[in-house]
Design brief:
The complex is a heterodimer. Chain A is mainly alpha-helical. Helices cover 74% and strands 0% of the residues of chain A. Chain B is of the alpha/beta class. Classes of the chains: A mainly alpha, B alpha/beta.
Chain lengths: 208, 651
């Protein structure tokens, strides 16, 4: 087994790559349908509001299932804490070093302060961001999405949570957060040692 | 004077006529039909012809008087000469003086003399009443009473009257045409068909265990008064005994006549004079019960009259928009055939419906162009019930949907494509989508919720009571700045005003909140464009959508036009959610505009936030997106610019 082969298998597993592709495409479609639904008079992307709603609902269900796939996978593999729970170091020095790299050192061609390994896939900023996304924003988005999916049925829960306006506002704001995150996520993915190296990593599972 | 009275008394007690002419002597000539066959000369030979000329009578008169009929008449106790006072001897003069009824009936003749009936027709008492055959009014049937009038007023009139024959058979003319007369409703038990009183034998056959009189079975409380419960029980027993659908019927009879038929009678064509739940019209209600010997009359509860199958929905009619707008029954029902079928009125031949020809012409024109009409040939009454009709504004979504669901029963199945189906079905009426040209809006209303959680829409009277004054202008109370449009602050203040605990307690309410309906404000009856637009969600789910043109507060009024005040559209997305509306959110609805963004920069942050309300989420979202793009843009540019530097370092 070559060195390349070892790296590929250990850094990003096939399951996570499949999960990521589904998740990425789904979030992208949800953002587009969300834009259509938020501005049906400005962005008629999917033809009709009715179609946009249908697609948004179906893809929303896919993301929900996909989230549980991700969650169960890491729980079963016992790697959730390892990869996604930030440490004190991550909140302190780790973040500062990574931020310094992104905002300053990268322009001078300095080596990155962090290199992904089998036991530590994400740098401190990634860890904090992904933890926020996967443990806070996405669950809230899924929950509010489910409540909005069948308002009449979930009305008592909606009422407890402050009413439909609040639920909708939270869902829309997190939608914007995801859209902003997606932009940054794609851009930051170009910051590997080559522009495409991180993309190759998530597609093929290894990074040269 | 005393002597005169004494003399009259002696004559009366002696049973002799005042002038010594017995009735028998009169009937010797006038009781024989041969008198009619005699020539004038032969008759002249029987009387004394005075030498002086006499003006002949204007009216025809009958020389033959049937003695038997006279002896059964109410005048049978009188001598002929009591009325024909000019006859003193027999043979009498050829020309006798006209009889004056006034001598015995002064009040009636005086009343009649003042009437237009007399002034116009110059009809005398005996033109209507035959004094030689007259019976007491009480003895006359409805038909006999009506025949008095029909002697001159020939049949064929009253074309406007719905169920004309039924009215004629159960009501005498003066029930309507003599408003001052006292009237009585005489009830009887009739078989379902062939309106007539059931006889003693028929009832006995149905009640084989009948011992004693029918009245004992009917009047179970033995108080000589028949009440509703007694009637119900009796009818039920008859039905069990084999009489199919026995029912209560009644004749309207005058019990105390009034001969002033000439007053203008505004009520004469007002069906509700009789057809109303509280019957002041009839001074008495009685019931005719058959006995072995004949008929016996009992008094009956007036309540019973309400059980008569008069006009369906008559009770509901009084609160309807038709009634309030002064539409009387005959304005719709005249010239139409209304049939009675098994106690239920059914309208027949309603194709030439008055709805569209008299009052709702514009709507009918709209409707007649629709596929709904062309395909189904449905008419107004197939959808709308005219008797309990209430203004459209007072119908809630469920009631409005019920109009369509009467025929379109499988709506649930047909609308499975729709997102939030239950929600749409609950809050959106059918014509919101299926009548694209109707004027629609978000309609807010006030709802009172009691401690058990049940709610009802508040009307202006309720609200004026809650704010403590029945005389205030409600619009001024709500629209405090008088600019004829409400903002969220005015609405919130008004709701607070209505939620004062002491007043709520008095009204038995827990709280007052806003309710919301997405409603048609002005209906459009051509539903034919449904295929092109019905599934277009953006009609409503779009900020610029044509579906919801306005946001209004609507307060129905039972007596006058409902109060409708527009509300600023932004109020619906205000942070200060109007009580009860926290659960209202319209996907694709109100959101940020360029003007909002400009105002945001101009105002103080707090004020700007309050002004924007929930539209703020878009500003926040755009800030996130702008930040992301800005970072990518700046970072990417620096990366590109510093690339040679990195390349040099690498080399």
């Amino acid at each position: 087994m070559s060195e390349k082969q070892i790296k590929k298998d250990k850094l990003v597993s096939l399951t996570i790559r499949i999960w990521h592709v589904i998740h990425g495409i789904s979030i992208f479609i949800l953002i587009l349908t969300g834009i259509h639904l938020r501005y049906p008079d400005l962005f008629v992307i999917f033809g009709t509001v009715r179609k946009a709603v249908q697609i948004h609902n179906i893809v929303g269900i896919i993301v929900t299932l996909d989230y549980f796939l991700w969650f169960i996978y890491y729980i079963v593999k016992k790697e959730m804490v390892l990869h996604y729970v930030p440490t004190i170091y991550d909140f302190g020095k780790g973040t500062i070093r990574q931020a310094q790299y992104y905002f300053y050192r990268i322009f001078f061609g300095d080596p990155p302060p962090f290199l992904p390994t089998q036991k530590n896939k994400f740098n401190s900023l990634q860890k904090i961001t992904y933890a926020g996304i996967m443990f806070i924003f996405l669950p809230i988005q899924i929950l509010t999405g489910i409540l909005l999916w069948d308002i009449e049925q979930f009305l008592p829960v909606v009422a407890i949570m402050g009413g439909l306006k609040i639920i909708d506002a939270v869902h829309v704001i997190i939608g914007y957060v995801f859209a902003a995150f997606l932009i940054l996520h794609i851009y930051l993915a170009t910051l590997g040692h080559t522009v495409l190296s991180h993309f190759k990593l998530i597609i093929f599972g290894y990074e040269e | 004077m005393v002597l005169r009275i004494l003399l009259l008394l002696i004559i009366f007690l002696s049973g002799q006529p005042l002038l010594g002419i017995e009735n028998k002597e009169c009937f010797d000539c006038h009781g024989n039909k041969d008198i009619l066959k005699m020539s004038e000369e032969e008759r002249d030979a029987m009387v004394v012809t005075p030498k002086q000329k006499h003006k002949p009578r204007e009216r025809k008169y009958n020389l033959y008087i049937a003695e038997g009929t006279f002896n059964r008449s109410s005048h049978s106790t009188l001598y002929c000469t009591d009325c024909h006072i000019s006859i003193r001897d027999i043979p009498h003069n050829k020309w006798t003086e006209p009889v004056s009824c006034q001598r015995c009936h002064p009040a009636t003749t005086k009343q009649y003399a003042l009437s237009n009936h007399y002034k116009i027709s110059n009809a005398k008492c005996y033109d209507c009443h035959n004094p030689h055959e007259s019976r007491t009014y009480r003895e006359l049937s409805v038909k006999e009473r009506s025949n008095i009038c029909l002697g001159c007023h020939k049949k064929g009139g009253h074309q406007w009257l719905p169920e004309r024959e039924l009215h004629f058979s159960s009501l005498e003319c003066s029930i309507c045409h003599s408003p001052s007369a006292e009237k009585e409703m005489v009830l009887f038990i009739s078989p379902s068909k062939n309106r007539r009183p059931l006889t003693y034998d028929e009832i006995k056959k149905a009640l084989p265990g009948l011992k004693g009189s029918i009245e004992n079975i009917l009047d179970t409380h033995s108080n000589k008064n028949i009440d509703t419960e007694e009637i119900k029980a009796f009818l039920s027993n008859l039905e069990k005994g084999g009489i199919k659908s026995p029912r209560l019927a009644g004749d309207g009879l005058v019990t105390k006549t009034s001969h002033d038929f000439t007053r203008i009678i505004p009520e004469a064509r007002d069906c509700t004079m009789c057809h109303k739940p509280f019957v002041y019209f009839y001074s008495k209600v009685s019931m005719k019960i058959p006995t072995k010997e004949g008929w016996k009359t009992f008094s009956a509860d007036k309540e019973i009259i309400n059980k008569l199958p008069v006009i369906p929905a008559k009770d509901a009619y009084f609160g309807t928009v038709h009634r309030k707008n002064g539409v009387e029954c005959i304005e719709c029902h005249a010239y139409q055939s209304v049939i009675r079928e098994a106690e239920k009125f059914k309208l027949k031949e309603m194709k030439e419906l008055v709805c569209g020809t008299r009052c709702h012409k514009e709507i009918m024109d709209e409707y007649k162009g629709s596929i709904h009409y062309k395909v189904h040939e449905n008419f107004c009454l197939d959808c709308h019930e005219p008797h309990p009709s209430v203004p459209y504004v007072r119908l809630n979504t469920e009631q409005r949907r019920a109009i369509c669901i009467k025929c379109h029963k499988e709506t649930e199945k047909q609308h499975r494509w729709q997102a939030q189906q239950t929600l749409h079905c609950r809050y959106v009426e059918c014509t919101m989508c299926h009548s694209p040209k109707a004027k629609k809006g978000i309609v807010l209303y006030l709802r009172g919720i009691d401690h058990k959680g049940s709610e009802r829409q508040l009307e202006s009277n309720d609200i004026l009571e809650l704010i403590g004054s029945k005389h205030r202008d409600l619009q001024k109370v709500i629209d405090r700045d008088g600019n004829k449009i409400l903002d969220e602050h005015e609405v919130a203040y008004f709701i607070k005003l209505l939620n004062r605990p002491e007043i709520l307690k008095r009204k038995g309410l827990d709280r007052v909140e806003m309710g919301i309906n997405l409603s048609v404000i002005r209906p459009y009856h051509n539903f034919t464009e449904k295929l092109s637009k019905a599934k277009d969600c953006s009609l409503c789910h779009s900020a610029s959508g044509e579906g919801l043109e306005s946001l209004v507060l609507q307060i129905p009024d039972t007596d006058k036009k409902s109060l409708t005040i527009p509300i600023e559209k932004d109020a619906i997305v205000a942070f200060l959610a109007m009580p009860g509306l926290s659960n209202f959110y319209l996907l694709g609805g109100k959101k940020i505009t360029k003007q909002d963004i400009l105002l945001f920069w101009e105002k103080e942050p707090r004020e700007a936030l309050i002004n924007l309300g929930f539209k703020m989420i878009d500003i926040l979202g755009m800030f996130f997106l702008a930040s992301a793009f800005l970072f990518v843009g700046i970072h990417g540019t620096i990366r590109i610019l510093t690339r040679p530097m990195r390349k040099n370092k690498k080399d």
